[in-house]
């Protein structure tokens, strides 16, 4: 079939953010908009004669976008496409498929936890051959190409039916439609002690039921394969596990605000272990009756317990890492175990080089992202099964008393102390106000005006500022530098406050305020067991006051607290 060259003009703002280009569906539906961005990807890579994976969470506009990728990809010389059935591949599953089949890269159609449907969000993300999100060097190049694009290439062939597994053709290109779940299930079975988990959950069907909520995102079929088909648990162990193009109208984000379908059932039915994942399957929340695990604690606890997980027992733990705003709980585990540890900017792409270099095994972000070097994306169901593996192992050690989430937390705090952590999100605020807030902090950084000043909260607790800086990261592997990654304020008692602008929103600006206060293991058990909101209130007061956040943003309360 002949290749056509279609004239086009650049669109403004096709800049990939923390995790790809995310905009309203209506924006992607504009004539040439999606085509331009896809062509810009091909102009930035050399995919001629290569294999490319297409994945996605199945959200609204995915079927159209896949056919556009066939047209433009084939015209740009892609030899073979590997696509999940019905264009479904969770983000972690896609990362695995890229690695397993040694593909050149992959295009992921997702806006993660952002709502979907005709009036909500769509997204396109490019991943490289290690299975991870493209590094900034590549995304910068894509953005540059979108600014000067004048035409794109298409190869017109009949659309591919994605509902049948098997091999087919698109013009001269091969198309392999694969089972969305099979490879991922094999991967997890190689990592975790499924027989141990199964034995524990079978023996405790009555007193330790579990519940996974897919929030109508992509993880449904994966969760069914793991929890019902492999672990043999009843249907009642999973809910909202059919992926829907609009996620049933919900906001598929696993946190206490948006995953209320999980929280409600866990509370009503006294379920000791519950979990949820986001739209594209890379986030997770662990939540049981009366027990919430912050993501910062979750990754630290997985690292602490790593040797009960066969993958780490066999391969060892090479190093640990977290994104900058994530609490320092995992640092303490690294120090105790004598492991190397890293602090990288927000976004999973920054972990990839360290993993490829064999220096990082387990890492996480405070934003409900947890994972390891088994792939190069964060992995929601991996974290859920990791927790089940840990709980099964802990119970094996304690045959006479049922060990639950809170026991694991309590023990962890008694060894390492506790990092109280919370994040306030101010979503879709005016960009001007958000920029002014950041400019004001930057001014305080350059003039040292806040250093050593004392700030007292409404309840009378005083905090002295010991440092103020704009976080910058130099990748130890390729020496690339990422600047302006967030304003950090440290206090003399070890507490920390971070301000950051989100890079995943599709409208206005989103300001994130992260607060962390450390209480050592020597504190009283009551102090260590306090609700996070209580442990942090005075620090939050001070952070809001000294940044004048409410004045700059013109809002009184955050939209989401996690
Ligand atoms: C947010 C999170 C960040 C995460 C990113 C992608 O980015 O804070 O930790 O890596 O989302 O996750 P930002 O720039 O909005 O703070 V996902 O599951 O949306 O791909
Ligand atoms: Co996600």
TrEMBL record:
<dbReference type="InterPro" id="IPR016066">
    <property type="entry name" value="A-D-PHexomutase_CS"/>
</dbReference>
<dbReference type="Pfam" id="PF02880">
    <property type="entry name" value="PGM_PMM_III"/>
</dbReference>
<dbReference type="Pfam" id="PF24947">
    <property type="entry name" value="PGM1_C_vert_fung"/>
</dbReference>
<keyword id="KW-0460">Magnesium</keyword>
<feature type="domain" description="Alpha-D-phosphohexomutase alpha/beta/alpha">
    <location>
        <begin position="313"/>
        <end position="403"/>
    </location>
</feature>
<keyword id="KW-0597">Phosphoprotein</keyword>
<dbReference type="GO" id="GO:0000287">
    <property type="term" value="F:magnesium ion binding"/>
</dbReference>
<dbReference type="GO" id="GO:0004614">
    <property type="term" value="F:phosphoglucomutase activity"/>
</dbReference>
<dbReference type="InterPro" id="IPR005846">
    <property type="entry name" value="A-D-PHexomutase_a/b/a-III"/>
</dbReference>
<keyword id="KW-0479">Metal-binding</keyword>
<dbReference type="InterPro" id="IPR036900">
    <property type="entry name" value="A-D-PHexomutase_C_sf"/>
</dbReference>
<dbReference type="InterPro" id="IPR005844">
    <property type="entry name" value="A-D-PHexomutase_a/b/a-I"/>
</dbReference>
<protein>
    <recommendedName>
        <fullName>phosphoglucomutase (alpha-D-glucose-1,6-bisphosphate-dependent)</fullName>
        <ecNumber>5.4.2.2</ecNumber>
    </recommendedName>
</protein>
<keyword id="KW-0119">Carbohydrate metabolism</keyword>
<keyword id="KW-0313">Glucose metabolism</keyword>
<dbReference type="Pfam" id="PF02878">
    <property type="entry name" value="PGM_PMM_I"/>
</dbReference>
<dbReference type="GO" id="GO:0006006">
    <property type="term" value="P:glucose metabolic process"/>
</dbReference>
<keyword id="KW-0413">Isomerase</keyword>
<feature type="domain" description="Alpha-D-phosphohexomutase alpha/beta/alpha">
    <location>
        <begin position="14"/>
        <end position="152"/>
    </location>
</feature>
<dbReference type="Pfam" id="PF02879">
    <property type="entry name" value="PGM_PMM_II"/>
</dbReference>
<dbReference type="InterPro" id="IPR005841">
    <property type="entry name" value="Alpha-D-phosphohexomutase_SF"/>
</dbReference>
<feature type="region of interest" description="Disordered">
    <location>
        <begin position="1"/>
        <end position="18"/>
    </location>
</feature>
<dbReference type="InterPro" id="IPR045244">
    <property type="entry name" value="PGM"/>
</dbReference>
<dbReference type="InterPro" id="IPR016055">
    <property type="entry name" value="A-D-PHexomutase_a/b/a-I/II/III"/>
</dbReference>
<comment type="similarity">
    <text>Belongs to the phosphohexose mutase family.</text>
</comment>
<dbReference type="InterPro" id="IPR005845">
    <property type="entry name" value="A-D-PHexomutase_a/b/a-II"/>
</dbReference>
<dbReference type="GO" id="GO:0005829">
    <property type="term" value="C:cytosol"/>
</dbReference>
<feature type="domain" description="Alpha-D-phosphohexomutase alpha/beta/alpha">
    <location>
        <begin position="204"/>
        <end position="287"/>
    </location>
</feature>
